[in-house]
Amino acid sequence: MKPPIILINYKAYENSYGERGYEISRKIEKVSKEYGVPVIVTVPATMIYKLSKETELIVYAQHVDGLEHGAKTGSILPEMVKDAGGKGSLLNHSERRIRLDEIHDAVIRMRKIGLESVVCVDRYELVYSMGILKPDAILIEPPELIGSGVAVSKAKPEVITKAVDEIKKVPGVYLVAGAGITSGEDVYKAVELGADGIGVASAVMRAKEPERVVAEFINQALKALEKRS
């Protein structure tokens, strides 16, 4: 994982699985290759194996349980994700909240077997406390802006700048900004403010031409990083 981090959450949209899920993934993969920028896709568990084997995308689970093997019906263990070819997992998304001890256990167990982790928080005050767990990245998303079309970088830029200050206290952990990002301008502003990348969902998954959206996001993220350097 390295900036610019482009993370696309497939959620459970109609085109997040099956043949439609595969088609949109190939479009995203093509853009990723053109720009030479790896793209992380967090996909339904049923898609991890196929996309890991048939694309060069970085495939994450949308959730894992930090549990040991055993009688755990319905659980998705880190070992299962790794065996299917996944490289990591999203944790604690606002639509899939888990307890702090569960986040801790999942991050620790994933790290032990070589999987990456991105932990979601809904406010900058939690960035440092979650960062202490040493996930690979913290994704900050004010829940009221998720899917709103109003980007956090515009509506609440102070959330990003304050989160940047907090992430500096835990070296080695990246900061990703999400919620309401719909345009290249939103991406540019988020990275300009100090984020290492962006997390999006509906802006790509509901787009008529998702490849063009992803291309614009990557292009603007690269421009913002170049300006910062």
TrEMBL record:
Keyword annotations of the record: Cytoplasm, Gluconeogenesis, Glycolysis, Isomerase
Catalytic activity: D-glyceraldehyde 3-phosphate = dihydroxyacetone phosphate
GO cellular component, one term: cytoplasm
Active site location: 93 (electrophile), 141 (proton acceptor)
Gene Ontology terms: biological process: gluconeogenesis; glycolytic process
Pathway noted in the entry: Carbohydrate biosynthesis; gluconeogenesis; Carbohydrate degradation; glycolysis; D-glyceraldehyde 3-phosphate from glycerone phosphate: step 1/1
Subcellular location: Cytoplasm
Main location as per UniProt: cytoplasm
A GO term for molecular function: triose-phosphate isomerase activity
Coiled coil: none
A Pfam family: TIM
Binding locations of substrate: 9-11, 146, 180, 201-202
EC number(s) from the headed UniProt entry: 5.3.1.1
Domain of life per record: Archaea
Matching InterPro entries: Aldolase_TIM, TIM_sf, Triosephosphate_isomerase, Triosephosphate_isomerase_arc
Summary of the function given for this chain in its UniProt record: Involved in the gluconeogenesis. Catalyzes stereospecifically the conversion of dihydroxyacetone phosphate (DHAP) to D-glyceraldehyde-3-phosphate (G3P).
Similarity comment: Belongs to the triosephosphate isomerase family.
Summary of subunit composition and partner proteins: Homotetramer; dimer of dimers.
NCBIfam families: PRK04302.1, tim
Protein name per the record: Triosephosphate isomerase
Taxonomy of the source species: Archaea, Thermoproteota, Thermoprotei, Sulfolobales, Sulfolobaceae
